[in-house]
């Protein structure tokens, strides 16, 4: 039982890394209707910005806050001067543009800061507590609770606020939203800015667990995309639940199914994607879209 609890807790901690990126991907999709493959790179850039502010002498909390604000501005500018040129065209072209943006951002980070590993301090204490025989890191527990709080805020934003409803309306039908008087351009910028700010929070949470490198979130981005597909593109709750499920199932399968082990556990999310797409294409928590023809 102690082993099971330990694997579950560690899986939730790892899944929280995936969930942080998955939430940002859901936010961009809800605001613009696009899937942002550059989200991992933008989160890494935000983490390096926070690191630079720390090196400049700012306290950790203040450095993270400034990085969040700077990331909001960067996200808004990226939408205004780059992504907007592709939003009205073929969605596949826009997706390719975000992949190119990922390459560009990763290259900029590598040129400015290099490929050497850098240590990022943690907001939370590194001590551990014993829960039913399992050793639980307070940092992992705090990270999980932070992701849970962000998920709740995003769910309230999209379902209960005028801004969230306006972002969803613009993503569903920009032309109709413009005719209704909504400032489509500004809302798109806000959506990308919020996603970039969320990426900064994700970078701040993940940075202490992984040493800072330009490609530190490349693998996590794959899992985050899997979580978004499993949970539903329009559901923050679904994205987080799926990310946690992937993290926990990976750990359990690696230990309790020797045939799979640690080498093949990466196949777990892809098997889940196949099953879910067959049984429920919109994801576990996603809305079924009905198109009138």
Automatic annotation (TrEMBL):
Matching Pfam families: BPD_transp_2
Domain of life: Bacteria
Keyword annotations from UniProtKB, A to Z: Amino-acid transport, Cell membrane, Membrane, Transmembrane, Transmembrane helix, Transport
InterPro entries according to UniProt: ABC_transp_permease, BCAA_transport_permease
Subcellular location: Cell membrane
Membrane-crossing segments per the record: 12-28, 60-82, 94-116, 136-158, 187-206, 212-233, 266-285
CDD domains: TM_PBP1_LivH_like (cd06582)
Membrane-topology annotation of the record: Multi-pass membrane protein
Similarity field: Belongs to the binding-protein-dependent transport system permease family. LivHM subfamily.
Protein name, per record: Branched-chain amino acid ABC transporter permease
């Amino acid at each position: 039982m102690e082993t099971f609890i330990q694997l579950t807790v560690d899986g939730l901690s790892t899944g929280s890394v995936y969930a942080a990126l998955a939430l940002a991907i859901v936010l961009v999709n809800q605001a613009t209707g696009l899937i942002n493959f550059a989200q991992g790179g933008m989160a890494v850039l935000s983490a390096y910005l926070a690191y630079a502010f720390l090196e400049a002498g700012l306290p950790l909390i203040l450095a993270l806050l400034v990085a969040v604000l700077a990331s909001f501005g960067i996200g808004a500018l990226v939408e205004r001067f780059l992504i907007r040129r592709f939003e009205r065209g073929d969605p596949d072209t826009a997706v390719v543009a975000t992949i190119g943006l990922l390459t560009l951002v990763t290259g900029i980070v590598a040129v400015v800061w290099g490929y050497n590993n850098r240590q990022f301090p943690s907001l939370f204490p590194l001590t551990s507590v014993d829960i039913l025989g399992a050793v639980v890191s307070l940092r992992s527990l705090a990270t999980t609770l932070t992701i849970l709080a962000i998920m709740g805020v995003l769910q309230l934003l999209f379902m209960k606020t005028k801004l969230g409803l306006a972002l969803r309306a613009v993503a569903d039908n920009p032309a109709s939203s413009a005719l209704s008087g909504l400032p489509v351009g500004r809302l798109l910028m806000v959506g990308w800015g919020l996603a970039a700010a969320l990426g900064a929070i994700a970078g701040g949470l993940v940075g202490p667990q992984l040493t800072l490198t330009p490609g530190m979130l490349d693998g996590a981005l794959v899992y985050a995309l899997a979580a978004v597909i499993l949970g539903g593109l329009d559901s923050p709750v679904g994205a987080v639940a799926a990310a946690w499920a992937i993290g926990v199932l990976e750990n359990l399968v690696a230990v309790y199914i020797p045939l799979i082990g640690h080498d093949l556990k990466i196949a777990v999310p892809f098997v889940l994607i196949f099953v879910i797409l067959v049984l429920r294409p919109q994801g576990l928590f996603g809305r079924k879209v009905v198109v009138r023809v």
